[in-house]
Amino acid sequence: MAPDAGSATRTRRTRGEGQWALGHREPLNANERSKKDDSPLNVRARIENVYARRGFDTIDPADLRGRFRWYGLYTQRKAGIDGGSTATLAPEELEDRYFMLRVRIDGGVLSTEALRLLGELSSTYARDTADITDRQNIQYHWIRIEDVPTIWARLEAAGLSTTEACGDSPRVILGSPVAGIAADEVIDGTPAVEEIKRRFIGADEFANLPRKFKTAVSGLPDVAHEIHDVAFVGVHHPEHGPGFDVWVGGGLSTNPMLAVRLGAWVSLDEVPDVWAGVVGLFRDYGYRRLRSRARLKFLVKDWGAARFREVLEREYLGHRLPDGPAPETGERPFDHVGVHRQKDGLCYVGAAPVAGRASGSMLVAAAKAAERAGSTRVRLTPQQKLIVLDVAESEVDGLRTALAEAGLHTDPSPWRRGVMACTGIEFCKLAIVETKARAARLVADLEQRLAEIQSDIDDPVTVHLNGCPNSCARIQVADIGLKGQIVTDADGKRVEGFQVHLGGRLGFEAGFGRKLRGHKVVATELAGYVERLVRTYLAQREQGERFAH
Ligand code: SF4
C-alpha cells in the first residue's frame, strides 16, 4: 500500500532535511558530496595550472560538471540534439567541448571601457556571442578552456569577474539600473551591493550553500524583488528615514513562490551584515537532502516570516531589527527603455535588443556611441535591456541613431520591448525547445501582424519564452508565459511547442500566471496564437484593465 502524504511528511521530518545546523554534516547526495570533497573555489587553480594548459580531455568530470559552475562555466549543448532525445544520453554525448561563460555584473553597472572590453573579448574568444541575461549578466558561448585564464585576467583588470556567477553560491546581485540617478528612488543601494561583493563573493564562508542564492538591492521596485531569495527594497521609515525593507524566500522554477516581507527595516550600512545573516541562515538551516527542495523558499514556507526573522536576529545578528513599513509597489518592474531625465538634469537612454540577444560587435558599438555622446557609464537591466547614462539633451538624438544602427532600439515596438527569452536549445543542455531565434521571429511577426493596433497597446504585453520547466526567463510572472515542451500537432506528430501560462505579474498585485490545463501551442503557430490573444484582450478590456487583471 502506498504511504499517505502525512506519513511521508512525518518520515521526512524524522530523518531531517540535511540541515547542517541540526547536525546533518554527512553529504546526502552527489552534489553535496562533491562540495564536501573539495571546495568548488579550488577549481580555479586547476583550470589555470592544469586544464587550460593540457586541454579539455584532462578535465576531471567532477570539476567539469560540478565545480566549474562556481566560475560561471558550463559546457554548452552539442549542436543538433533535439529536445525530445536527451533523457537517454550520457553527459558526454550531450555536451560540447566549448563552454558558456557568465560574467557577473553586479547591479548591472559598467563603464563604457568595461562594455567595450566585454565586446572585444566576445569577438576574440566567443565567436561574437554576448547575450544580456535577465539577471544583468553577460553570457558568452563557444569559450575554449585554453582561453579562460586570459579572459579572467582581462576581466579582472577591468573590475569584472565570473566568480560565483553560477553554482550553489551567492549569484550576481541585482540592482536598480538607475541607482543614483533616478529622481524618484528612495535610496541608492549601490554602496551595499559593492560592499557585499567586496566582503563575501568568492569567500569560503558562503561558497557551499544548499543551492543557488539570488539577491536584489534596489531603491526602486524595478528588480523583480518578489522572486529573489533575499531582496532589499527602498522604503522611507517614519523615524529612521530612507533604508530598506527585507523580503525573503522568493523563487520561480517548478515550485514558484513569491517572497515574503520580514517586516524589518535595515539601514544602508547594515545591509551587508543582514545579507550575510540571511545567507548564513540558509547555509546552516537550508535543506540539503533533495536539490528539488534546497532553495531558501522551502525553508521560508515551512518556518514563516516571523520565525525566520526571529532566528536571523537571535542567531546571526545578535540584535533586533526595527519594524518597518512596506515599500510602495510599482505597477510593474519598469524596463527604463526610452529617454528619461536624471535627477541632475542630464538624460538616460534605454535601448532594447531582441530578447537579450546581443553580440560583441553590438557592445563595442554601444560603448563607442555612448562615449561619442559624452557618457562613460552604462547599465544592464533585469529586462535584458541596456541603458546609457549621463547624456546631455543635445546629444540624445545622435545617440539614439547610433544605438539603433547597432541594433539597439530606444523606441521599440511593444513586442521588442516585452518579449524575453532564455538561452534555450541553441546552447543549454537542459532545453527542450529553441527560444532565442524563435523570440526574434515572434517579435518580427507581431510587429507586422499587429502594426495597425500597435498604438493601442499602452501597457506592453510581456511574452516570456522558456526552453524547459526551469524558469530562467520568468514565465510565471509574464502576461503570456511560454514553457517549452514537446507537444502533439494536428497531424499527431511530436513537435516543439509551449505550455501556456496567462496573467502573471510583478509589482502591484503580484501573482503567478495561470497554467491553462491542456492549453498548449505548437511553436510554428506561436505568432498567430499571441495575435489572437492580444486582439481579444484589446477588444474586450474594460477601462483601466491590464492584461493580468
Ligand atoms: Fe536552459 Fe531551461 Fe533555463 Fe532555458 S529555462 S536557459 S532551457 S535551464
TrEMBL record:
Residues 166-320, 417-549 form the Nitrite/sulphite reductase 4Fe-4S domain. Its EC number is 1.8.7.1. GO terms for molecular function: 4 iron, 4 sulfur cluster binding; heme binding; metal ion binding; sulfite reductase (ferredoxin) activity. Residues 1-40 are annotated as: Disordered. Its cofactor is [4Fe-4S] cluster; siroheme. Residues 96-158, 340-406 form the Nitrite/Sulfite reductase ferredoxin-like domain. Belongs to the nitrite and sulfite reductase 4Fe-4S domain family. PANTHER family: FERREDOXIN--NITRITE REDUCTASE, CHLOROPLASTIC. Catalyzes the reduction of sulfite to sulfide, a step in the biosynthesis of sulfur-containing amino acids and cofactors. This is assimilatory sulfite reductase (ferredoxin). It comes from Saccharomonospora xinjiangensis XJ-54.
